[in-house]
Amino acid sequence: MPSLIPVTTTHLGEHLPLLDLLPDGNLVSWIRAGEGIVGWGVHATTTVSGPHRFEDARKWWSAQLESFAITNSVHGNGTGPILFTSFSFSPDDASVLIIPQVIVGKKAGKSWITWIGSAPQPVLNENPPALTPNSIVWNIDNAADTAWKSRVSTAVNRIQSGELEKVVLARELTGRSAHKIEVRSILGKLSVEYPSTWCFAVDGLVGATPELLLRLSRKMVTSRVLAGTISKTGNDERDLALAASLARSSKDLEEHEYAVRSVADALEPFCTSTNVPESPFVLHLANVMHLATDVTGALAEKLTHVDAFTILEQLHPSAAVCGTPREKAADLISEIESLSRGRYAGPVGWIDAAGDGELGIALRCGQINEDSIRIFAGCGIVAGSDPIKELAESQAKLVPMRSALT
């Protein structure tokens, strides 16, 4: 029988900025307001695809855990060995699973480090390599904008005919750099400009999502639902008026209700109780405002084998990234969207050895391939959607990644 691999977790006395610890290459990140988890190096990695990809991911993670001898003097959610995951939107595309060699976490004033192997505790780098600014030349295509508005019109017609209630249509923008694109630079800019979002990086997918699909911690479940968007002007008084109009907008409230209902319905079978606020709040980001609702629940004690993988399989894809009804919306996306989403709009984040974790929806993000990048934006289309306004909304949603790549 092969010997077990040591995995050690211990407290860190210092509280260094997490992003400053990251080296170039093979890095992963999940940070919000300076707290979270980062990692580097690859102990093990694999891909899964197909309709059973969440179950296949669980089996692979469980097999890896069986090979570990874990010593954890910190304990708690997010400590010990961590699986970083980036699942595809569609089961046809590949999802990526990574177990970092070294993990550093920070939460509520507590910092810790985890490393895999028998080597001594890694020495943290307090002097990170200098960042190389990214300078992207974007492929601006007015014909693509026109084609996307046409697809929105098609979707509206199908919705108004009674075929479905809502569909989310995505679009992409591609760009190229003169050199290899620097992930750390993107994360640094996003974390400063959008501190209330979750800044993530997994295998070249990097972004700042405002939407928490699932937090599972000690049998408590949380999901933050966003749907309904309006751009900010930068004028505080004007933006307050716009926020009020967003909160009253029948079109946006309808779109939001579909998304909240899909999440609440997915969580209900697992929970003894769920809390769904009667009305959303307005979440203010640097460039846009969203209608937002935090859905929470307590897992039923009798369900002993429910973990993050189990709930993700039911949650994804929610109406916030697919539509309502789910199957009809997915079919329409396949028919008219004309792009491969890859891991855009899929679950992204981390899962620990207990099966707890934090995973967002991979929004406001881009997929890097050496010196090129695809960035994405999506809009929820309902019966009252206007193609011109939806195009403007999609352009606003592209701003975080475009500005982080300058």
TrEMBL record:
The EC number(s) this enzyme carries: 5.4.4.2
Classification via PANTHER family: ISOCHORISMATE SYNTHASE ENTC
Keyword Isomerase: yes
Stated family: Belongs to the isochorismate synthase family.
Organism: freshwater metagenome
InterPro entries, alphabetized: ADC_synthase, Chorismate_C, IsoChor_synthase
Keywords: Isomerase
Matching Pfam families: Chorismate_bind
Protein name (record): isochorismate synthase
Catalysed reactions, semicolon-separated: chorismate = isochorismate
UniProt-recorded Gene Ontology molecular function terms: isochorismate synthase activity
Organism ancestry: unclassified sequences, metagenomes, ecological metagenomes
Keyword Heme: no
Domain Chorismate-utilising enzyme C-terminal intervals: 146-397
Gene3D superfamilies, per the entry: Anthranilate synthase
